């Protein structure tokens, strides 16, 4: 049971973000050509995930006070990480987004593992939904790295690695269901703060053209519909 749930969570994470990375690499020339749109698109995806997914679920799990406190802690954590990254410009933005996706996938894995305790069908359904949801998030990670001129093979590798914490979270969720279920809201809030900082500090200041705005709106709408 534990191995099965761990593998399902791992596949949901790796395939979801990995497909996003592969898509951005296949259409790399188009991404380079429409970089302003793509950066806005990735920012819209991330902000929508924070508002419609992470903070909503965190408040349902832990309440508004804990959500606000740990979201703020996530912002501070990301500010600290940024100050320690020895990269500049788009490269720094890309790695910050990569880190935020890593943090985001752990609590989603915890949710998958915990749901299997309630019912196997619920766990499988949640894993499929999260895998689909992770495709645009993998795309957001990849788009930022494309902007930093990172080679396609590395981009695909990074997006697959970004999905691994979901497998770890699934294992922890099913093995320590009672303990980690109560902490899901905390992890979600930290991830929300991390993503929020990246969007407001790294992506939005660079997204001032009309194409960036259109991309931002498109990314937001797509995540909302998913």
Identify the overall geometry: globular
Unreliable runs, pLDDT <50, ≥5 residues?
none
Question: Main β-sheet: number of strands, strand sense, barrel status?
Answer: none
Which sequence of SSEs, written as H and E, runs from N to C?
HHHHHHHHHHH
Whole-number radius of gyration? 16 Å
Structural class: mainly alpha
Number of domains: 1
What is the number of helices? 11
Oligomer: single chain
- Would you count the extended β strands for me? 0
Helical percentage: over 70%
What integer is the average pLDDT?
78
| N-end to C-end Cα span | 29 Å
Q: β content, as a range?
A: under 5%
Family: Belongs to the ZIP transporter (TC 2.A.5) family.
Membrane topology: Multi-pass membrane protein
Pfam families: Zip (PF02535)
GO cellular component, one term: plasma membrane
Kindly describe this structure.
The chain has 226 residues and is mainly alpha-helical. The chain has one domain. Helices cover 89% and strands 0% of the residues. The protein has 11 helices and no strands. The chain is globular.
Write the layout of secondary structure elements.
Layout: H1 2-26, H2 28-33, H3 35-62, H4 64-84, H5 89-118, H6 120-147, H7 152-162, H8 164-175, H9 177-181, H10 184-203, H11 210-225
Helix pairs in contact: 1-5, 1-6, 1-7, 1-8, 3-4, 3-6, 3-10, 3-11, 4-10, 5-6, 5-7, 5-8, 5-10, 6-7
In short:
Keywords: Cell membrane, Membrane, Transmembrane, Transmembrane helix, Zinc. It is a multi-pass membrane protein. With 226 residues, this protein is mainly alpha-helical.
For the structure shown, list the relevant keywords.
226 residues, mainly alpha, 89% helix, globular, transmembrane, zinc, cell membrane, transmembrane helix, Zinc permease
């Amino acid at each position: 049971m534990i191995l099965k749930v761990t593998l399902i969570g791992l596949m949901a994470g790796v395939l979801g973000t990995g497909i996003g990375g592969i898509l951005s690499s296949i259409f790399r020339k188009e991404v380079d050509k429409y970089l302003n749109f793509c950066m806005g698109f990735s920012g819209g995806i991330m902000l929508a995930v924070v508002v419609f997914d992470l903070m909503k679920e965190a408040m349902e799990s832990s309440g508004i006070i804990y959500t606000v406190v740990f979201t703020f802690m996530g912002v501070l954590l990301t500010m600290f990480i940024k100050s320690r990254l020895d990269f500049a410009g788009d490269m720094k933005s890309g790695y910050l987004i990569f880190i935020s996706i890593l943090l985001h996938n752990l609590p989603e894995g915890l949710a998958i593992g915990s749901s299997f305790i309630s019912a196997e069908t619920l766990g499988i359904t949640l894993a499929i939904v999260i895998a689909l949801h992770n495709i645009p998030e993998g795309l957001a990670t990849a788009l930022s790295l494309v902007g930093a001129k990172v080679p396609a093979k590395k981009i695909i590798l990074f997006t697959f690695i970004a999905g691994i914490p979901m497998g770890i979270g699934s294992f922890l969720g099913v093995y320590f269901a009672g303990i980690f279920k109560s902490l899901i809201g905390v992890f979600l809030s930290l991830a929300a703060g991390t993503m929020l900082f990246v969007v407001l500090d790294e992506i939005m200041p660079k997204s001032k053209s009309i194409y960036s705005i259109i991309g931002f709106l498109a990314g937001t709408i797509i995540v909302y519909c998913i």
